[in-house]
Amino acid sequence: MSSNNNFSSFDENESKFMRKAKESPFVPIGMAGCAAVVAFGLWRLKSRGNTKMSVHLIHMRVGAQGFIVGAMTLGVIYSMYKEYSAHKDLGKDGK
């Protein structure tokens, strides 16, 4: 019986993630972009030449943070647009 409880809580967690992803779609995009930047940085690690490891890691960190900040900014703009269009639709009905 405890295995059924664990399985049902897994379904609830999965649906919660999907619900949150639908509410703010740029969060998963930011996470995927960060993972892509880190993967690209690790792939480029073998051909970095004379560049110091610390400089390479700093560039990789800045790229990942830039992608996440960009995704957050787009998410805020998207949510502001949704909120503005919802208020605009309410104004047309006169309610």
From TrEMBL:
One of its GO terms (cellular component) is mitochondrial membrane. One of its GO terms (biological process) is mitochondrial respirasome assembly. It comes from the Eukaryota. It is found in: Mitochondrion membrane. Residues 1-90 form the HIG1 domain. Pfam families: HIG_1_N. InterPro entries: Hypoxia_induced_domain (IPR007667), RCF1 (IPR050355). Keywords: Membrane, Mitochondrion, Transmembrane, Transmembrane helix. The chain crosses the membrane at residues 26-45, 57-81. Signal peptide: none annotated. PANTHER family: HIG1 DOMAIN FAMILY MEMBER 1A, HYPOXIA-INDUCBILE GENE 1 HIG1 -RELATED. This is HIG1 domain family member 1A, mitochondrial-like. It comes from Oncorhynchus kisutch (Coho salmon). The gene is LOC109891207.
